[in-house]
Write a structure and sequence with these properties.
mainly alpha, 3 helices, 83% helix, elongated
Amino acid sequence: MFYVGLVVEFAVTIGLFAYAFDLTIPPFPLWRPFSWFLAGWCLYTSLAKVWDLVSLITAPQGGDESLLSGFFGLLLLLLLNYFGWLGVWRYGQRVSQQQARAS
């Protein structure tokens, strides 16, 4: 799963740069389905982090510091997942609209 995460995050980085700098990166039909795959991936990673936090709450190991850092880690992950998905989704929308106008 680590290597899958690296590949997904590399593709997300490409999509975000393409969206932010108004680039056109082929293959064009890839980006909309990739945004939905990314939504599933973000949901999976978020739920895994929530599961880790719940297991930390039910069996605390290091006191309040580990619980607090786990909560802030979850919050950061949710923010990064949302904005990463949003940028790739908007880029997919823009590319599909450009392809529709070109046809």
